[in-house]
Design a protein that fits this description.
heterodimer, A: alpha+beta, 2 domains, B: 242 residues, alpha/beta, 6-stranded mixed sheet, 5-stranded antiparallel sheet, 7 helices
Chain lengths: 403, 242
């Protein structure tokens, strides 16, 4: 006869409520692990998806995902000239914040190197990749844009031609993919008045300088758009990403690129590592500590619950001892209930979590490895937290059955 | 021969505390209960009856003296000579003033658990438990939890549990206190029947003088001292006069 199940059945309502409470607590522990996984996944998603062998970024910076990085567009051609480089393309990345339906909307803007990169690698759930150099965008579903929707950014209007899912920046902002030209246009968008003021300032500077007096035609050109002025550099990129020829020596390619004084070079793993050790590291530590704290709290609460459950049947335990039940029987009664509490609690945590976590603003990713790890932790907690109850039960004298 | 006795105690004494707080709850109590004999133990509250019963029941060992059950020296002073819990399971059945059933087990399960603890398979144990409950007139309430049974029914289930493993000793502490006189007599009669039919030694602590005629021997306790009050031929009237 299984005494544990008999007792649970007898006190089913209370046990069910207790298990639900434990389950909710475990769901929070599970969720914290999932949030951590989500942050890591989001942080490294782009790097993994882009799949570049080499990231060439501004000298002494850690790349566009960690800080501002500026490299000249000509760097693409310089990179292509290096033996072993199969392809190189421009990469533009920045974050903007706009208002949508009265709420702030943060968009991580990513520029694709048209026409070599049209976003075919972006996992679409609707629509298509980019089909022209301007005025089209692919948006992540988390941004709330619908397929075909027209979105005004800067002075231009962009049509959503593709919708993707789970393409999030390391800060949790939804990604939007444009061509590099459009991404730069959005980044460098300047109000008309600012443009006029800049042109006037340019002319004033020219008039004050000797060269302006000597060459009046220069003054005339000073008020022209910046793109028409050869001395003014073209907008800069965030990075250049390159693929290495199959069979080429990656180390050798990196050695050549690293010899250039204006850039720093990272492999895909290096860029990934920098990201994880940088902005994500503190969040990882914080969530890890919080998770440990929650696990300890869960263990304490489970210990108190099991202790109370044991106290409730202390008379029955004394009676069982009186009629000759061995310690193993008593131990089995408490441990089995602890396991049921832990296992059912874990099941509840998983089932509720599956429904609740998708509603979280950031991704909560439950990996098999994490679930197994938590399941083992819960089993250990179940055993450890039943020690208090077992200790009490072992101390009970059969005499107490007579009182 | 010692083997003729289901229960034998030799000068058992129980002392609680020490020094100024020392209390002698039971002093030099000796008793011999033959197999098939039903013994009543009378005495006022605080006289040491329950102390004696718990010492014989191997629940609360005496400070000194010996407890011998079915010819086996089980307690020599406070020292256990065998595994007490295992010995209790195989040799002793208990019935208390309160029925003391496990609240989360049904009537039949309360009896069945005693059998299973003694090594019987669940199926066999259940069959035997049902037979015992039928025999005690509560077979129709076998599936009910204790909270759904009357006091008398609960007490009969407790008696069935005490009898389950066919113990050589049955110890009952005020088993009829919660019962009306008719039920009380029935329970007392049941003990006598079990003792005579199965050869068990039965000690019943009781205040109930209405059913003393079923006992073979009557002992009295007062201030921790035990003395034999009456034997088989004595009627309850005679006992009251002593």
């Amino acid at each position: 006869m299984n005494l544990a199940t008999k007792d649970i059945r007898h006190n089913f309502g209370r046990f069910a409520l207790t298990t639900l409470g434990v389950g909710m607590l475990l769901m929070v522990v599970m969720g914290m692990g999932g949030i951590y996984r989500g942050i890591v996944e989001d942080a490294t998603l782009l790097i993994d998806r882009i799949g570049a062998d080499v990231w060439i970024v501004q000298r002494s910076t850690r790349g566009p995902f960690a800080e501002v990085s500026r490299v000249p567009p000509t760097l693409v051609h310089r990179a292509l000239a290096v033996p072993g480089i199969q392809s190189a393309r421009e990469f533009v990345y920045h974050t903007i914040q706009r208002e949508r339906e009265g709420k702030p909307l943060r968009i991580a803007v990513l520029g694709l190197s048209w026409p070599t990169d049209k976003g075919e690698w972006v996992p679409l759930i609707a629509g298509r990749p980019l089909a022209q150099n301007h005025y089209e965008m692919i948006a992540d579903g988390s941004l709330g844009f619908q397929l075909g929707e027209r979105v005004e950014l800067g002075k231009e209007t962009y049509t959503v031609v593709g919708v993707t899912r789970s393409m999030i920046s390391s800060n949790g902002d939804g990604l939007a993919f444009f061509t590099v030209a459009d991404a730069l246009a959005i980044q460098l968008d300047t109000p008309g008045e600012a443009v006029r003021l800049e042109r006037a300032a340019r002319q004033a500077r020219g008039e004050r300088s000797e060269i302006g007096a000597k060459q009046p035609t220069l003054l005339e050109r000073a008020t022209a758009p910046a793109a028409e002025l050869p001395p003014i550099a073209r907008p800069q990129l965030s990075a250049v990403v390159a693929e290495v020829d199959p069979g080429a020596d990656l180390e050798h390619v990196i050695e050549i690129l690293s010899g250039w004084d204006d850039v720093s070079v990272y492999t895909q793993d290096g860029q990934r590592e920098l990201l994880l050790r940088g902005s994500v590291e503190k969040i990882r530590q914080q969530i890890g500590l919080f998770r440990i704290l929650l696990t300890v709290i869960a263990a304490i609460i489970m210990a108190l619950i099991l202790y109370t459950l044991t106290l409730d049947k202390i008379h029955s335990i004394a009676l069982l001892k009186l009629i000759g039940a061995s310690n193993t029987v008593i131990l089995g009664l408490i441990l089995q209930q602890a396991f049921v509490l832990g296992v059912v609690g874990f099941g509840i945590a998983y089932l509720i979590g599956q429904r609740v976590f998708p509603m979280f603003p950031r991704r909560v990713i439950l990996t098999d490895e994490d679930l197994w790890q938590l399941a083992i932790i819960v089993l250990v907690i179940s055993v450890v937290s039943s020690f208090l109850g077992i200790w009490k039960a072992m101390r009970v004298s059969p005499n107490e059955a007579l009182s | 021969m010692e083997d003729d006795f289901a229960i034998e105690t030799k000068g058992i004494t129980k002392v609680y505390g020490s020094g100024n707080t020392e209390v002698v709850a039971m002093r030099d109590a000796s008793i011999k209960v033959r197999r098939g004999e039903v013994v009543a133990l009378l005495g006022p509250s605080g006289s040491g009856k329950s102390t004696f019963l718990t010492a014989v029941g191997l629940i609360n060992p005496p400070t000194s003296g010996q407890v011998i059950i079915s010819g086996t020296l089980v307690l020599d002073g406070p020292q256990a000579q065998t595994n007490l819990r295992s010995f209790r399971r195989r040799h002793i059945g208990y019935v208390f003033q309160k029925s003391n059933l496990i609240p989360f087990l049904s009537a039949v399960e309360n009896v069945q658990i005693a059998l299973e603890l003694n090594g019987q398979l669940p199926g066999t144990a259940r069959k035997r438990a049902l037979q015992l409950l039928d025999g005690l007139g509560v077979g129709d309430r076998a599936g009910n939890l204790p909270s759904m049974l009357s006091g008398g029914q609960q007490q009969r289930v407790a008696v069935a549990r005490a009898l389950a493993n066919q113990p050589s000793v049955i110890l009952a502490d005020e088993p009829t206190a919660a019962l009306d006189s008719q039920r009380g007599r029935q329970v007392m009669g049941l003990f006598a029947q079990v003792a005579h039919e199965r050869g068990a030694g039965v000690i019943v602590v009781t205040h109930d003088h209405r059913a003393l005629d079923v006992f073979d021997t009557i002992y009295e306790m007062e201030d921790g001292m035990m003395r034999r009050a009456s034997q088989l031929a004595h009627t309850s009237e005679q006992v009251r006069r002593t």
